[in-house]
Amino acid sequence: MGRIFTFFPPRKNGYSKQGGELNGGINVRIILKSFWALIIICAVMTSPSTAAVKTLWSLDLPGDAQWHKVTGLGSLLVGTKTALHHVDTESGTVMWSRDDIPRSAPFNVQEVAGTPYILVNNHEGGFNQKTSLQMVDITTGKTVWTTGEMMGANMGAYPIASHGMVLFVSGLSMHEKGAAIYLQAYGIEKGNLLWESKYADFNALKQHMADNSSNWFVKLDLSGHRRPVVEGDSVYLTFKGLHAYDLKTGEEIWGQDFKTAGDLKLTYASPIIDNATVYAAGRKYIYAFDKATGEQLWKSERLKGSRPQMALVRDKIIVRQGGQFSNGQDIVPKKPYRIVALDASSGKVIWKYKKAKKAMTSFQIDEMRQAVYFADQKRVIGLNVADGTVLFEKKLEFEHEMGTAQMAATGLSIGSGLMSGGLLGGVQGALSASSASEKNIDAPLDVSLMDQEHLIVRGQQHILCMTAEGQQPRWSYSFEAPGTNRFALIAMGAVTAMNAMANTGYHSSWSRRDTAVDNALMGANRFNTLASRRYSAAAKAKRLAYFLTNLEEGGEQGPGLISLDMTTGEVANQLYLDDKEPEYGLDELSNRVYYFKDGDKLIAYEM
87-93 long-range contacts, Cβ below 8 Å, gap at least 24? Predict the structure, then answer.
């Protein structure tokens, strides 16, 4: 009988603003603010004392799943090579399939928060590139409207539900006003063109490998950039610096050109809007601009490496340098690893913390204690926001370390990240060969604040809960890594998602729905039924972390999942999958696992 390595027994009961990528202020979708869904890859033999897992239903798909994600309604969107499918997760039936949407990707299929619609970007590659945009009713699968085909390449589409529009960014080669990159705003309800504005020269924007790229044809898009930020009637774009546009007219209010994205995805932070000032991150500097005029107020000293996260904490801008990033194929560590505090009024450096070693998680701001928390390879660290003094440095001591055989993995499929919990989609590959000196690091992936009292530190093979004051951990687990190629680095897929979420200002609220959109779109009974069901499931949600493991069941050993209750530190359940390379999705709001057996058989379990 196996066991879980427990180093600290569980004990029962026991003003900042970050840059936000906002979809127009409609915050009705249940979006996870913490990283409860992070997949941590480990190897552990668990005791059979956990509760039985309930099999809910099974469904034969018409093809292997290429990607999947849980929607805000709790249903499943599944993309195969030949079609896009929408699965009702209560009944286990396919609500609809669209064979005219083949080879889709998560970046190209987006929900419009608070509405019964999904936005689908169709982009045909090749020498004669064509692109189109269509709005699909998620409850019926029917097209509400389409833009029709345009010659060029779609780079990104961004729903802005508060203004009843979708912002479409395209490189159009045959436009009547000349080849260029255009911003086009379409109405959500009817698909009518509200306005159009030339944004940049045809080849002016840095693009990155798309989620659905193949080895035969590489597709590029804006997935390596931050999403547009909306405040009031203005939208701020960071694709080539910082540019403000009027959402009502499409006119540019002001613009400042500077380099933002590099070769890696999401290496610069989203802008922060505070009263009359907008703070923005470039490839080398942090900037402050007057919100009304765009006048540059200050520029920081040069900050080496990346600047993927920043937060306004009272009179300071806290900036993270370094971390792990995707280039569309590999996960690449990027130095230096630092935390820097800038004076928000002048941009001058107040303090720097430069002692982080070999890794850097996203930071967590504790407004109540005026502290910033993060972790490097072997320590969790707390700093005083005021002067950067060290509040605590706690060494992360775990029994097992990942072996070099596991770290030599290549060709694995990295997961789509924490939002869906799945292993499909996202980037492909292993750690970059250029990072050989840092390959053998089981570095923490995330530090989060739970209930304002405890810090959760997670790594690929370990998890720890400690007090926010840095005292002795409440509980801690460490696990030996599996020996197969697929498992060795699969958790690194969460890196892209964590970089995307590090500056996100999302909040879940069912009461802040835009009135105009609400009146026009919320009358559909099917949508209201699904939304109500989802809301009920969210109220019952437990805080569980899921671990992909090697399990023992009935004398057989093989891959499976265990769930850990984050509030108690106790193992809640286990699920034996008996699949060398399991593909699955997690819905933490309903405590469900969606397992894609052999790629085309979908089985739902309740954990």
Answer: 87/59, 87/602, 89/587, 89/590, 89/592, 89/594, 89/604, 90/533, 91/57, 92/56, 92/57, 92/58, 92/59, 92/602, 92/604, 93/59
The pLDDT, as a whole number, for residue 82 is 93
Mean pLDDT of the chain: 75
Domain chopping of the chain, boundaries = 42-79+490-606
Rg (CA), the chain: 23
SS3 486: helix
Measure CA 159 to chain center: 17
Report residue 2's pLDDT band, with 50, 70 and 90 as the boundaries. Answer: very low
In the block, tokens 């699965």 appear at: 87
Report whether 543 contacts 566 (CB < 8 A).
yes
Where residue 141 falls (left for φ over 0; alpha for ψ -120 to 50; beta otherwise) is left
Q: What is the pLDDT of residue 192?
A: 92
Phi, then psi, of 391 in degrees rounded to 5: -80, -40
Q: What is the total residue count of the chain?
A: 607
Q: Alpha-carbon distance 513 to 476, whole Å?
A: 41
User: Which residues share a beta bridge with 549?
Assistant: 560
- Is the confidence at residue 39, as pLDDT, over 80? no
Coil vs helix vs strand at 42: coil
Six token digits for residue 32: 């996870």
Q: How far apart are CA 403 and CA 393, in angstroms?
A: 26
Q: Quick one: which of 535, 529, 522 has its CA closest to 590?
A: 535
Rounded Cα distance between 125 and 279, Å, is 36
Rounded Cα–Cα distance for residues 62 and 112 (Å): 27
pLDDT single digits (tens) 13-36: 334 566 654 333 323 222 233 333
Residue 323: name the closest of 482, 209, 456, 494 by CA: 494
Distances (CA, A) of 431 to 319, 427, 436, 498: 25, 11, 8, 17
Token pair for 133? 């945009």
Q: How far apart are CA 586 and CA 566, in angstroms?
A: 16
Three-state helix/strand/coil letters over 67-79: EEEECCCCCEEEE
Contact by Cβ (8 Å): 428, 409: no
- Maximum Cα interatomic distance, the chain, rounded to a whole number of Å: 71
Q: How much is the pLDDT for 36?
A: 33
| Cα(602)–Cα(586) distance, integer angstroms | 13
Rounded CA-CA distance 408/287 in Å is 41
Model pTM?
Answer: 0.77
Position 535 confidence tier, pLDDT thresholds 50, 70, 90 = low
Torsion of CA 450, 384, 376, 336, to 10 degrees: 130
Which residues, 6 or more positions from 499, have their beta carbon under 8 angstroms from its beta carbon? 265, 266, 267, 308, 309, 323, 325, 326, 362
Distance CA 8, CA 550 (A): 22
